[in-house]
Amino acid sequence: MRYRLIAIDLDGTLLCPEGEVSGENRAALHAAHEAGALILPCTGRGWRESRRPIASVPDSAVGVFNTGAMVCALGDGATRDRAAFEPGTARQIIDRLTDTGEPIDDLPGGARLKRGAIARRAVAERADHCAGVEHADSAVGH
Description:
Helix content is 37%, strand content 15%.
């Protein structure tokens, strides 16, 4: 059977424990590519933190990042497609998470959050920003 597409996870699949693509895996990727298969890296990671390991992926134009929420160009990270939360949904999720007392560190777009009320405000502002509403005294770090 000839495969036309190989969608492969990075962590625990393509990458060895040191975070590198092994020689054996690199050779297998190149052999599959030479046989006509499209290699599609898929990961829960963002594009930036995936750049080094995906450099070994032959001639793929795009990859799937952020646990499936983003399809980005491998070369420059340009967004080709994304699945975004509606602003109200994002607020509800953050409200529930901050009520648990668990830390929340990152949001799509590089926003960094603090805990509690500041986190809720920052998320609300990020959601508004995505909807085109700006705040002069933003708590969202970029």
